[in-house]
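Re: the 214-residue chain
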Amino acid sequence: MHERGRLQRVPGTLVPQVLAGNRPQLVIDQRDQLSGRLWIAVAPRPEQARHDVGGGVSNRGLLGAALAAAFATVAFDAFAGDTKRVVIAERNNIVAFDPATGKGMQAGTFHAAGAISDTGTATSDFTVTPLGGDRALLEGDHVLTSAAGSLVVRSRVTLFPYPSPRVIAQGTWKIVAATGTYAGLQGHGKSLAVGDFTTATATIMRDGEVGPEE
């Protein structure tokens, strides 16, 4: 933290990638590992592999496009009066945090499956308030944005043990605003996350239900 109390930037090398809309390298590597496993399941013929090495179209790219087409669906699939299960995951970088004020910012990506099937960027402003007894309260709004629209998800979670290099964050979430395809959507559920201050990352899993506004 700067001696004048300014927000501390962490880690600097990841911030431009996130704010520019690109995934951090760690996430890209994980994606490549996943596609690699899928590639093994549908391995190309030897001549195809040689063509890839020579600068042709990557089978990984073709496989990704084929899978996207095969599993294409609407971003929000709920009928009037229905409430359906959704799981929303976020992988964020903690791009700023001031322990003196408890204020911070996150930026990264989200992936949703179930009643919502979508992926996009995630940003959040949050505040951490120590509660004593190795506990703290974290509150903040997460803005999830994609081509389909945006969702504002309000989180209220307890951090423990706090302070600590790595913390568990457990609590609740609810949708407080929505635009585009998601206009009129409401939802709520439980949240479980790991905040790692040694790598300045937050991995969040939300499980709950969404449906049309009543």
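Strands lie at 8-9, 84-98, 103-114, 118-132, 135-146, 149-160, 166-180, 185-196, 201-212.
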